[in-house]
Amino acid sequence: MDQIRKKGMQKVVLALIFGFSLNSIFAQQLKLGSEVYPEHRYYPLRGEIFYKAYTQIKGNAYLSDDWVEGDIFLSNGLVLKDVKFKADVYAHDLLVYNEYLKRVVVLDRTQIDHFVMLEDGQPRYFKRTQSGKNFKMGHNEFFVEVLQEGPMALYKLYFNEVVPLKLPEMPYIDEFYLQKDYYLVWNGEWDEISLRRATLIRKFPERKDEIKKFIRKNKLRMREEKDFARLVDYLSIKLQADQVSD
User: Fold this and answer.
1) What does residue 115 show for φ and ψ, rounded to 5 degrees?
2) Distance between CA atoms of 94 and 115, rounded to whole angstroms?
3) Number of domains present in the structure of the chain
4) Alpha-carbon distance 210 to 20, whole Å?
5) What DSSP state is assigned to residue 63?
6) How far apart are CA 217 and CA 13, in angstroms?
7) 222 and 137, same structural domain?
8) Is the dihedral of CA 122, 222, 231, 179 positive or negative?
9) Are 243 and 152 within one domain?
10) Could you say which of 67, 215, 216, 236 would form a disulfide bridge with 150 (CB–CB 3.0 to 4.6 Å)?
11) How far apart are alpha carbons 119 and 4 in whole angstroms?
12) For residues 115 and 71, what is the distance between their CA atoms, to the nearest angstrom?
């Protein structure tokens, strides 16, 4: 996979100019941190120049077809505001357009703490996390969508599987299939789960009646992410209170 992406890439140290505007591709201004950190006119943001990739794979490697707007929060505390970017859910990278270089740039993901993208005016929060947490894939780091954050967390991992085409369509020999997994994190343990009531009852059998009562009272639909996240939040508060009392 890395050979497909990195072939033809040239490593650079990028100076993203705060407050620069995009060209007609985006048709609106791209401001990198100018409102939050106006004293930093330049900031060296590591990355690689992006050239056309996945030329033999049919489909979309990205979470969205179009460039999305949002904020990128760096691990050193800087914030890149109102950025247009794409999330590559095959390589788990972020791509931004650098007007100064007139290039699409693959950001060094180790600089990124989290990012927020806007979809239909609603924010979606993604954070960078390490591997070694029962993930199926071989990446060292991932971006997961945060559905619920607290002592107990609920994350969604998007990833692309590459499947050989039964009937190759030149130049394509493979095809992307977007997949998603859900993870429940409690006491540092990551468990892949399905959004079902039975999932939480099996994990916390002593809370069985309490779980059922909360679902009935609030008329929750467990296959709805927001409803499942609400139940996770409720259990998180209860379980944390029990730990404190012990």
Assistant:
1) -145, 155
2) 10
3) 2
4) 54
5) S
6) 55
7) no
8) negative
9) no
10) 236
11) 29
12) 6
84 and 61 in a common domain: yes
Instruction: Give the mean pLDDT of the chain.
Output: 78
Which residues form the domain of 214? 195-246
Tokens for 231?
A: 């139940």
- 11, burial (CB in 10 Å: exposed 0-12, middle 13-18, buried 19+): exposed
Contact 67, 53 (CB under 8 A): no
Whether residues 200 and 173 share a domain: the answer is no
When pLDDT is cut at 50, 70 and 90, the band that residue 41 belongs to is: very low
Whether a cis peptide bond, with omega within 30° of 0, leads into 171 is: yes
Q: Give the residue from 90, 86, 93 showing the smallest Cα distance to 112.
A: 93
pTM of the model: 0.76
Q: How far apart are CA 12 and CA 20, in angstroms?
A: 19
What are the strands, taking DSSP E only, across the chain? Answer: 11-17, 42-49, 57-58, 68-74, 79-88, 93-98, 103-107, 112-119, 122-130, 141-148, 152-169, 172-186, 189-193
CA distance 65 to 89: 12
Mean pLDDT of 34-45: 40
Residue-level pLDDT at 10: 36
The candidate with the shortest Cα–Cα distance to 108, out of 138, 134, 76, is: 76
145 and 65 within one domain: yes
Q: What is the CA radius of gyration of the chain?
A: 21
